[in-house]
Design a protein that fits this description.
By secondary structure, the chain is an alpha+beta fold. About 25% of the residues lie in helices and about 30% in strands. The strands form eight sheets. The chain has a four-stranded antiparallel beta sheet.
């Protein structure tokens, strides 16, 4: 930077004049503090600009005078803040140039000095520069489309992130694996290795969260609960669990609980257990089943179940087969979820990925595994299934109960594959895979053409997709499979058990597949179901898989991919900051969650992380004493976040803004007449300004 002695000298003179003026006028503590801060900042600025020693001395004298002024007036200051009003000593352009070299905290404090400085401290150009320099965002990335000013956008990222720990819930006695909020945000559920599912209330008057109900699933031979989900109208709760059985068991179960009286309505077998299960609509849920038809070839069947199975007539269908999909190379379908993609998008919620990609190209930033992003630390089934269940129950009675329940849930079915392939040669396995592929191509129902080649008529439709993890090269999940669910498939009425297929069509083809090139360990949908976020641990670049039983080594860094479900394309801008350390055969699921503006995830490094969805930056890190398994934003307020950990706790995080509001003393309402109250209400309702979606 070029020398600037004139500016430094002018600043010293203005400092002296302001100091002399402040002795004659009553000033506030904030004003005196601002003088001292600006003096110190100016001294440092003069050193950077290579000004003369005399100018530095003058600035130091000014700083000392301002400090002395503060000490003299501490006891004489009035209670109410009085800003110093005086004639303009410096032009606005010079004050702006000085503010550009100050941190944002100093700029805000300096703005309390006088009206001129206050006006300059709210300058849009100033906050645009402070925004890009502080968060280190490429300048070609535009401001969020919903933002109304750079100042408010800076404040949103700095003050509205749920990074302040306000409460720790310790009611669970073992590792907490999953958290889920109701759609209204008034309740949330938690699942744990202690085999309970607990319900919590978030609407207490004192702001604290309290336990409402706890159900133990031990009586149903569950080992632990692993996942839960509220239906669309928050009247039913889906709870997914793992059977207590031998180590190689991959069976689980789904239970439906009424939230009106906490009674158990139905139970559905679920295999493998890491299908988890999900709601399709208010009254129907999806479960899975797995049938092995070879050493490394299997068939996954996805079932649609009615939640109220115990009260249905025997003449009414309560279960219906949705899809039957062939698996090769020891892979299976896991982690099912439903996305309801609307034909209309809200422009304020769309992420400008094209601008992000352009900025990355301009800056020459190449993504590699050594990249370290900036971190802002702010603080029902067939007879085969029943036989397997009976066998497992007998083994349980013989002593399987001594199996440790404290190990982390890992990939299901892996031991089964290893046992069956133990004495089978590589050539035999390769022949099996080749035959399975030929049979799959010859006896599979073709994919949905409207999904592969969208037409103009289909573009205006609301679409429902079934999303799940799968694979084609090895047992570890490395692909996202997509099947469109048609309107006539939304209910258990109609054709059952695949009667709509021809006799030659044994399987359903996937409508679309997205390869992640890594081990997928988590997925989450944005609130509008437009974007799918995927946690994965990458494989080495250019790796070749020759043995399906030996997948490539996986990276410790966790990549967070973004997939646009409107055009079924992965946006090439993965987020990174969180880490995991377990190998392929011990890798477990880490749940993530997405709010309107943010995305959060757990990690094995004892932290949860929060990113901004638009600017692609990590904003906060949430500390725990062990692995963070799950995070969840409140559906009603994204400034409330929960995190669950292997340390058996649930931590509650709120934003600094919400913490201040909760701690502020309540104000007594002023008595107002009807006319003034109506005028004030009308004025507030017409105002379009808001901070982070809240007035």
């Amino acid at each position: 930077m070029a020398p600037w002695p004139a500016a430094a000298t002018a600043l010293a003179v203005s400092g002296a004049a302001a100091t002399d003026l402040s002795r004659q006028l009553p000033v506030s503590e904030a004003a005196a503090t601002a003088l001292a801060v600006s003096g110190a900042a100016a001294t440092d600025l003069s050193r950077q600009l290579l000004v003369s020693e005399a100018a530095v001395t003058a600035l130091a004298v000014f700083e000392a005078a301002a400090t002395d002024l503060l000490r003299q007036n501490l006891r004489q200051l009035p209670r109410q803040d009085v800003r110093m009003e005086c004639g303009r000593v410096l032009p606005d352009s010079l004050v702006l140039e000085i503010f550009l070299h100050l941190p944002h905290e100093a700029v805000l404090r300096a703005g309390l000095t006088c009206r001129q400085w206050l006006a300059v401290s709210r300058d849009e150009f100033l906050w645009r520069e402070l925004f890009y320099s502080y968060y280190r965002i490429p300048r070609s990335v535009p401001r969020h489309p919903a933002a109304v000013s750079w100042y408010r956008e800076f404040r949103r990222l700095y003050d509205c992130i749920p990074c302040v720990e306000v409460q720790t819930l310790r009611e669970h006695s073992d590792q907490v694996l999953h958290l889920a909020f109701s759609h209204r945000g008034h309740r949330f559920s938690s699942c744990s290795k202690d085999c309970t599912v607990k319900l919590w209330d978030t609407e207490r008057p004192d702001g604290n969260i309290s336990l409402v109900h706890s159900s133990s699933m031990r009586q149903f031979n569950w080992g632990y609960t692993q996942f839960s989900q509220f239906n669309a109208d928050d009247t039913l709760l889906l709870v997914s669990g793992v059977y207590l059985g031998p180590h190689h068991s991959s069976s689980g179960e789904i239970a439906v609980i009424s939230l009106e009286n906490y009674t158990l309505l139905s139970r559905v077998r679920n295999k493998p257990y890491d299908v988890f299960g999900c709601w399709l609509n208010e009254t129907h849920l999806i479960s899975g089943n797995l049938h092995w038809i070879g050493n490394m070839t299997s068939c996954s069947v996805l079932w649609l179940n009615k939640a109220f199975q115990d009260v249905e007539s025997e003449n009414v269908n309560v279960v219906k087969r949705l899809f039957k999909i062939q698996n090769i190379n020891a892979s299976t379908i896991r982690t099912v979820m439903v996305a309801h993609c609307r034909r209309h998008d809200n422009p304020d919620l769309l992420l400008d990925y094209e601008a992000q990609s352009q900025a990355r190209r301009q800056k020459g930033q190449q993504q590699d595994q050594h990249h370290q992003p900036l971190l802002f630390d702010l603080g029902t089934s067939g007879s085969e299934e029943e036989e397997e269940a009976d066998e497992e129950h007998q083994q349980l009675q013989k002593g399987a109960r001594c199996h440790s329940l404290h190990s982390q849930p890992t990939l299901s079915g892996l031991d089964h594959v290893m046992q069956k392939c133990k004495n089978v040669g590589a050539r035999e396995l390769a022949i099996e895979t080749h035959v399975a592929k030929v049979m799959g191509r010859a006896h599979s129902k073709p994919p949905e053409s409207s999904l592969i080649e969208p037409s103009e008529s289909s573009d205006g439709e609301d679409k429902t997709y079934l999303l799940f993890t799968t694979g084609s090269l090895t047992y570890s999940p490395h692909q996202i499979g997509i099947k469109r669910i048609k309107p006539d498939q939304m209910t258990t009425s109609g054709p059952v058990l695949g009667k709509e297929r021809s006799s030659e069509e044994f399987f359903d083809s996937l409508d679309h597949v997205i390869d992640i090139h890594g081990h997928i360990i988590g997925m989450g949908l944005s609130p509008d179901h437009r974007y799918l976020y995927v946690n994965s641990r990458a494989w080495p670049a250019g790796c070749v898989i020759s043995d399906p039983k030996c997948p490539p080594p996986i990276a410790e860094e966790i990549d967070l991919h973004v997939i646009d479900l409107k055009n079924l394309r992965e946006e090439r801008r993965s987020l990174r900051a969180h880490r995991a350390f377990t190998p392929n055969d011990e890798c477990f699921f880490i749940f993530l969650d997405v709010s309107r503006d943010f995305v959060a995830s757990g990690a094995e490094d004892k932290h949860g992380y929060i990113w901004d969805r638009h600017y692609n930056i990590c904003l906060a890190r949430l500390a725990h004493d062990d692995v963070v398994n799950s995070v969840a934003f409140s559906s009603a307020d994204q400034e409330l976040l929960l995190s669950a950990s292997d340390d058996s706790t649930i931590k509650v995080w709120r934003s600094p803004r919400m913490v201040r509001l909760a701690q502020a003393p309540s104000r007594q309402p002023r008595p107002r007449n009807l006319l003034s109250s109506w005028l004030s209400r009308g004025k507030n309702s017409t105002s379009g300004s808001s901070v982070n979606g809240k007035p």
